[in-house]
Amino acid sequence: MRVNVGTVRAFPGVLPDKAQAVKVVEEAAEVFSAWEQWSGVRDEGIRDMLVGELADCVTACANLAAALGVYDLARAVKEAEVRNEERGRYEE
After folding, report:
1. Across all residues in the chain, what is the average pLDDT?
2. How deeply is 27 buried, as exposed, middle or buried, from its count of CB atoms within 10 A (0-12, 13-18, 19+)?
């Protein structure tokens, strides 16, 4: 299974500072909060909100990557996939 996130547009002027790193954590917390709401009722509207929070989290990660001068995460994602494969995480 693959999940396509497409090309993510980073915000202009992002800095590799604590605030940018914390933004990733904040967005991840919002993902968890939305998931908690959705998991209790499995409502489609809440699911859509959860998906939106996932997109915000991906954007925050892209902003931090851009702030670090990294504009192509394809190799890093592939390396993570290899590590996960070695750990047996793709086995069913």
Report:
1. 97
2. buried
Q: Which two tokens stand for residue 18?
A: 């604590």
41-69 pLDDT per residue, tens: 999 999 999 999 999 999 999 999 999 99
Token pair for residue 40?
Answer: 């209790």
Residue in 12, 17, 28, 5 with CA at minimum distance from that of residue 68 = 17
Domains of the chain, residue spans = 18-86
Alpha helices in the chain (DSSP H): 18-41, 44-67, 74-86
**Largest Cα span, the chain:** 43
CA trace torsion 54, 58, 61, 62 (10° rounding): -160
- The size of the chain, in residues, is 92
Backbone region of residue 42 per phi and psi (left: phi > 0; alpha: psi in -120 to 50; beta: other values): left
